[in-house]
Write a structure and sequence with these properties.
Keywords: Membrane, Transmembrane, Transmembrane helix. By secondary structure, this protein is mainly alpha-helical. It has one domain. 95% of the residues lie in helices and 0% in strands. It contains one helix and no strands. The N and C termini lie far apart (57 Å).
Length: 40
């Protein structure tokens, strides 16, 4: 159980980084969309 709790975060960290990056890009595009929607 101890070894398992050490392995899981190491495997999960790159996945979290990818999710964070995707969500950041999504938020940027969403902000642009709202900006252009208000501009129109």
């Amino acid at each position: 159980m101890n070894g398992y709790s050490y392995i899981v975060p190491i495997l999960f960290q790159p996945f979290l980084r990818i999710i964070k990056k995707i969500s950041q890009i999504f938020l940027d595009y969403f902000g642009l969309f709202i900006f252009f929607y208000n501009f129109l």
